Amino acid sequence: MAVQTSLFDLTGKVALLTGASKGMGYSMAEGLAEHGANVVVSSRKIDQCEVACQEINEKVGRDAAVPMACNIGYKEQLENLVEQTRSKLGPIDILVSNAGINPFFGPMSQIPDGAFDKIMNSNVRSNHWLCQMVSSDMIKSGSGSMMITSSTGAFSGSMTLGTYNISKLADIALVRNLAMELGPNNIRVNAICPGLIKTDFAKALWDNPDAKKNAETNTPLRRLGEKEDLKGIAVFLASPASAYITGQAIAVCGGTHMWR
Fold this sequence. Notes:
By secondary structure, this protein is α/β, with parallel strands linked by helices. The chain has a single domain (14-196, 228-252), classed as NAD(P)-binding Rossmann-like Domain (Rossmann fold). The protein is 43% helix and 15% strand. It has 8 helices and 7 strands; from the N terminus they run βαβαβαβαβαβαααβ. A 7-stranded parallel β-sheet has the order 3-2-1-4-5-6-7, with helices on both faces. Strand 5 (144-149), helix 5 (162-182) and strand 6 form a beta-alpha-beta unit. Helix 3 runs parallel beside helix 4 and helix 4 packs parallel to helix 5 (162-182). The longest helix is centred in the middle third of the chain and has 29 residues, at 113-141. The radius of gyration is 18 Å and the shape is globular.
């Protein structure tokens, strides 16, 4: 007998994703579309968004994905992204705020002020803006799910990624506060905390023999993460399956960071 459940049914839901033309964001958009949602795939480069949407639409057999360009560092571009999503697909039910940056690699004692500001503004303030912009749709409908991509880097210090880690811990604090503020409206807000995932964004961290050996030796699941490993958590947090989960920072890390 075939399994029948509506726990993960997202039919007709509208999902807006940033940083979704490739990597983890792409996999999350694909997963949401596979479960019935209509998705906006956004990133800075429209051509990459268009390719991603074509691939997703071919896979799901319908026009589920719509491409939109947006640089999250600019409030007016985020406002346009939200308005265009409403215009083309309708009110927003699901937000995956996945885009983030890290323009500096090294000790915090050497980071230029401009790089520090850019990291904090793009990785924290832009998420705050976007959550505020879409919350009115969710308040009106009486339900919704927001996800912000944080990182397991939020759980520790770093000699080379200090400011990035600070921004990702701030994202968890943002999630907790939004969960408290929006909970009475049946809106859930959670942080997704990937470990070391084999994406272009993190290539400097994993594309070397030492990282591979370390993952295969010290990670309980004995491997590096793949972008597809983020697909299920996005579907879960967007769907009725997670109806009583909010304000959480969920690590997707193969077991490297347990019970935070």
